[in-house]
């Protein structure tokens, strides 16, 4: 577990596929307090104790901690999905699903108000573009010190994380064989475990939303008790 987070080098950096990330990486400005928090997060992840690593550092602002980690999860999921985009096509995934019992329809409440049925690649494109727009909005995710988070920040963060979970769920249910062939399952599992421990720590995703991966979540959790 620990060596995955010991440096900023992507585990896929050597392969040709890796250069093809799905969306531009969202960078936290160096020298900022959020950058320091991200470095703290990476250092504690290196200890291998994920339950401890997700806890709010002493004296830190909860909104800021959630913001930094949300950006980090967006980057991780972005990279993980970027490695399997060639297997996730209109033909292979005509609907956005997480197994036979869960299907997702897209709506963002502004451009698309009524949920639309679309292919997984289209859905994930909508989803990641929408998340990126939220992360780039300085009124929602202020990067400057002293600029307050909006009153609705927590509900925005919860919606972002709920939607990012769906990308993990789709990868696990529909593309895990490709992940195995690329020998990326350890990275996917570590990233997902970190994500789950984080949302559990701060109660950020409703249990019903996690149902598509409930068995896996229980398995990951039981190893750490």
From TrEMBL:
It comes from the Eukaryota. The keyword Kinase applies. SMART domains: Mob1_phocein (SM01388). Keywords: Kinase, Metal-binding, Transferase, Zinc. Zn(2+) binds at residues 88, 93, 170, 175. SUPFAM superfamilies: Mob1/phocein (SSF101152). Residues 1-29 are annotated as: Disordered. Residues 1-19 have a biased composition (Polar residues). GO terms for molecular function: kinase activity. The keyword Kinase applies. This is MOB1A kinase. It comes from Eudromia elegans.
